[in-house]
UniProtKB/TrEMBL annotation:
It comes from the Eukaryota. It holds the Pfam family 6PGD. GO terms for molecular function: NADP binding; phosphogluconate dehydrogenase (decarboxylating) activity. Homodimer. It comes from Xylona heveae (strain CBS 132557 / TC161). Pathway: Carbohydrate degradation; pentose phosphate pathway; D-ribulose 5-phosphate from D-glucose 6-phosphate (oxidative stage): step 3/3. Its EC number is 1.1.1.44. The lineage of its organism: Eukaryota, Fungi, Dikarya, Ascomycota, Pezizomycotina. Belongs to the 6-phosphogluconate dehydrogenase family. PROSITE patterns: 6PGD (PS00461). The keyword Oxidoreductase applies. Residues 182-480 form the 6-phosphogluconate dehydrogenase C-terminal domain. This is 6-phosphogluconate dehydrogenase, decarboxylating. Keywords: Gluconate utilization, NADP, Oxidoreductase, Pentose shunt. GO terms for biological process: D-gluconate metabolic process; pentose-phosphate shunt, oxidative branch.
């Protein structure tokens, strides 16, 4: 087999995502070199799906590297964690300074930070890229979110923007930022996906138990919503799921165990939000809702022991009007979730000293990915109109949308509480909105409590500043007459 350098692009990892990305790149005129640790997979792929296409196989790492044109562009689509590091080490003896290694797995962004720095010290340009869109996205156009060693971007841009999804003619792929920024943005994308899915599930529950609708009728509602402001991939998926009948003619969804799994990216987003002190409450609730769902046996016992004693939900009134309210509640809560996601991204850019491109991030999510929706066009416009926009809710479009949605949103959350139907994501979105727009929150009580029991100090409001309580200073008060006058801050070990 010839080891002549013919490949424009190399990919390691022939699971379904890897195979589909290779076929996608070949469709766009690139010659792709394919390698898999189990080399029989390479032969099988070449003899079947890749037959007749500009795809060549390699049966060793050395052969894989030899078949690529310089600077070599090599992508790993292997399991996140140790496998990525072991493939990097396997490549290092054969590659040269200036070559580019791309990790397209769901890696945790601190690992990407580490790998970028480590490989830069060896003259290798490392890129960590988020890939979203599942199997079909990989084959016909995913959303790609690359970050890392910025010098790599001009060399990989043609491949990445060719194979990515397009939205209004624009590629859903742009350089995100330094080090682990690409994988960070993918992590937040997945967190938002958790939030969107939880909100849709709550809307389904309200329709099913609150309004007494059948699955087909709920599917019809989602089909209608998919033609309006909620037009999105996940609404479409939900419609299809609700229409899908098993062989016995009953909806399959009714037979599925209500215990949700998770792979960890939503949890990473929630943990990172806590680390950065950002109130990303909706994604946090979506993660906890999955955790609660997994306590199925315990919930079954609880339903018998502490079942809701109140009235079984029985809706009286205008169902069509309530469904409009529910649509607005879902839309407003979704706006809050994305607002929180972008607040987190903004804070990460500050904390990690990354240059992040917010309009491009919204554009990357417009097509190809799981959270793709028409709504992301409005976010792209908001950041293009004002790249320094402090908060999405300050944009005129979103300000008007959320004001319009408020009455229906409050109605739905109230009904959920009265009926005993949990709406953790709808409720937390509304609470965040009400908290965010409140000038004076009750945190003054918290600060007084903390100073009372732990001498943790407080600051005085500017309008009450005086000689006794100077503005901007940390003040401790002897609340009981028995405590001392030394504040906690002066004796921190």
């Amino acid at each position: 087999m010839s080891n002549e350098a013919v490949g424009d692009f190399g990919l390691i990892g022939l699971a379904v995502m890897g195979q589909n990305l290779i076929l996608n790149a070949a469709d766009h005129g690139f010659t792709v070199v394919a390698f898999n640790r189990t080399t029989s997979k390479v032969d099988h792929f070449l003899a079947n799906e890749a037959k007749g296409k500009s795809i060549v196989g390699a049966h060793s790492i050395q052969e894989f590297v030899a078949k690529l044109k310089k600077p070599r562009r090599m992508m790993l689509l292997v399991m996140a964690g140790a496998p990525v590091d072991s493939f990097i080490e396997a490549l290092l003896p054969f590659i040269e300074p200036g070559d580019i290694i791309i990790d397209g797995g769901n890696s945790h962004f601190p690992d990407t930070n580490r790998r970028t720095q480590y490989l830069a010290s060896k003259g290798i340009r490392f890129v960590g890229t988020g890939v979203s869109g599942g199997e079909e996205g990989a084959r016909y156009g995913p959303s790609l979110m690359p970050g890392g060693h910025e010098e790599a971007w001009p060399y990989i841009k043609d491949v990445f923007q060719s194979i990515s999804a397009k939205s209004d003619g624009e590629a859903c792929c742009e350089w995100v930022g330094d080090e682990g920024a690409g994988h960070y943005v993918k992590m937040v994308h997945n967190g938002i996906e958790y939030g969107d899915m939880q909100l849709i599930s709550e809307a389904y529950d309200i329709m099913k138990r609150g309004l007494g609708l059948k699955d087909k009728e709920i599917g019809d509602v989602f089909a209608k919503w998919n033609k309006g402001v909620l037009d999105s991939f996940l609404i479409e998926v939900t419609r299809d799921v609700l229409y899908f009948n098993d062989d016995d003619g009953t909806p399959l969804v009714e037979k599925i165990l209500d215990s949700a799994g998770q792979k960890g990216t939503g949890k990473w987003t929630a943990i990172n939000a806590l680390d950065l002190g950002m109130p990303v409450t909706l994604i946090g609730e979506a993660v906890f809702a999955r955790c609660l769902s997994s306590l199925k046996a315990e919930r079954t016992r609880a339903s018998k022991l502490i079942g809701y004693e109140g009235r079984v939900p029985h809706f009286e009134g205008d169902k069509e009007k309530f469904l409009e309210d529910l649509e607005q509640a879902l839309y407003a809560s979704k706006i809050i979730s994305y607002t929180q996601g972008f607040m987190l991204i903004q804070e990460a850019a500050k904390s990690y000293s990354w240059k992040l491109n917010k309009p491009s991030i919204a554009l990357m999510w417009r097509g190809g990915c799981i959270i793709r929706s028409v709504f992301l066009k409005d976010i792209t416009n908001a950041y293009r109109n004002n790249p320094e926009l402090e908060n999405l809710l300050f944009d005129d479009f979103f300000k008007k949308a959320i004001q319009k949605a408020q009455p229906g949103w409050r109605e739905v959350v109230s009904k959920g509480a009265l009926w005993g139907i949990p709406t953790p994501a709808f409720s937390t979105a509304l609470s965040f909105f009400d908290g965010y727009r409140t000038k004076d929150l009750p945190a003054n009580i918290l600060q007084a409590q903390r100073d009372y029991f732990g001498a943790h100090t407080f600051k005085i409001k500017p309008e009450f500043a005086s000689e006794k309580y100077p503005e901007g200073q940390n003040i401790h008060v002897n609340w009981t007459g028995r405590g001392g006058n030394v504040s906690a801050s002066t004796y921190q070990a």
